[in-house]
Amino acid sequence: MSKRISALSIAVLVLAGSFVGISSASAAVAYKACSPAKAKTTIGKLSYTCAKNPAGTSTKLVWVSKPCIDANASYLSAKSLSTAVSSSFESRISSATRLKATSTRLIAAAQKNVDTWSSHLASYLAKNPNVMTSGTDADKKTVTTVQDGITRNKQRIIDQQANIVKLDAQIKEATDGAAKTANDLASAKASIVIACK
User: Fold this and answer.
1) Tens digits of residue pLDDT in 149-161
2) Are 140 and 131 within 8 A, CB to CB?
3) Which ranges of the chain would DSSP assign to H, the alpha helix?
């Protein structure tokens, strides 16, 4: 009789343990405490995993939905990618800014040449108004050389101004790209909060 009782007791305990397992799984509540980590269950029609809620600050294990886990994985992937993309945009902005500063210096130098040489040429022509008709070949050549130098420097100014316009466009494009990347990352992070409710 005692053997039957002990066998029956063991059977009851095993059966009770089975019901405990069923009741704890069926009693699982989304985003409520759970254990052990990585345990799986279904609540309603969604699959849940026992893990830390990526939308919260708590380190406690709770039942986290698959959409929440997927949103967090997408965010982490976007975050990793955005670091490289942001770095590329910053590099482009820095490079274009340096080139723009160089163009600005070249414009200033060319403008100084234009102003100085124009002033000297005007002064020379005021003293020698007929140099191009009755002056020596050397004098005519000097005047022509100065005029060509002025023309070349004016063209440098035009070229560098056009270059600055292009560089400004590059800076704007990179700045907009960096802002969009940051915005996309913020949206991905916000989607975690939505998915992890």
Assistant:
1) 999 999 999 999 9
2) yes
3) 2-26, 66-127, 131-134, 137-195
CB 149 within 8 A of CB 117: yes
- Evaluate the CA torsion angle 76, 80, 83, 89 in order and state its sign: negative
Distance CA 191, CA 197 (A): 10
- CA 75 vs CA 80, 94, 102: distances in Å: 9, 27, 40
- 194: which 2 tokens? 């939505």
**pTM higher than 0.90 for the full model?**
no
How far apart (Å, rounded) are the C-alpha atoms in residues 147 and 145?
5
Beta bridge partners of 48: 41, 65
Preceding amide of 36 cis, omega within 30: yes
AA letter at 102:
T
Going by C-alpha positions, the residue among 74, 57, 60 that lies closest to residue 195 is: 74
Alpha-carbon distance of 60 to 47, in angstroms, equals: 19
C-alpha torsion angle, residues 176, 177, 182, 183 (rounded to 10): 70
